[in-house]
User: What shape does this take?
Amino acid sequence: MSTAREMFMALASSKDDERHAAVNDARRSLTTAKLEALDQVEGLDEAGMRLVMPGLYQQIVATTIQVAARVGVAVGVAIEAVDELRSEVSIGSFSRAVRDQMTETGVAMKRRHGSPIAKQVAEIEAQRLAWRHNHEFLSWLAFRRDDPRYPAHDRRARLERFKIVDRLLIGRQAMAARLGKPMAVALEAHDRFMLANRWRLDPQIPEHAVEAYVWPLLSYQGEGHVRVELARHHYDALVGAGVDEATRLHQREALAALFVEQLAEGIDHAPANTRSGMV
Assistant: This one.
């Protein structure tokens, strides 16, 4: 019987392995559901989103639960993150208004699910929604250095009123309890990176090039995390410089390879009850 790490590595290496056909079909369905949801909510007003988002988000979470039921929660959320990176579509691709609708649905789903795996997935997805909101808020207020509309003292006051420190630390603690600290760290960094509306370092500004090199080291995390963060900053720089799609794809795959290794380590440290499925 393969270990959770071995299962994850096999899934991450190919979507065509017949041994995992059911899981791979569900993974493809999950990516398709996100892409279709993005297309359907484009241009909708709040009333329209209230009509369509509950069903769309329930479909996304239900498919995530299907994968987790077969391979375990840790492997399920890890392989979903890899698929998000490679497909460039995630919950973070949606606007804040859409994610607010997802949050309302997610709260209701947490109460409704009966099976342990379904409940775990619903709780994890709800927490990931919360820290996406927090990181979007933090990203824009923390780094608007040259915007006269947002002087530093005002930005600091807003961050304090929002209680950004408490919100993020509580979220991290909750996710570490559910998935182990290494996996929680990997997912939080991934979810921030996948936010469509986040502040990015500008490759045309020399100081930003220095920061892209330094910030990963100041995360005080291990080698795997630092190398993934360096690769993310490099990818952002390439996108900001307007490189061709082939160059972007090459760097994204290099980033994915590092991310897979980071997640595999996270799976090794995940709680035992998250490392096996029920099917």
Observations:
- The chain has a mean pLDDT of 90.
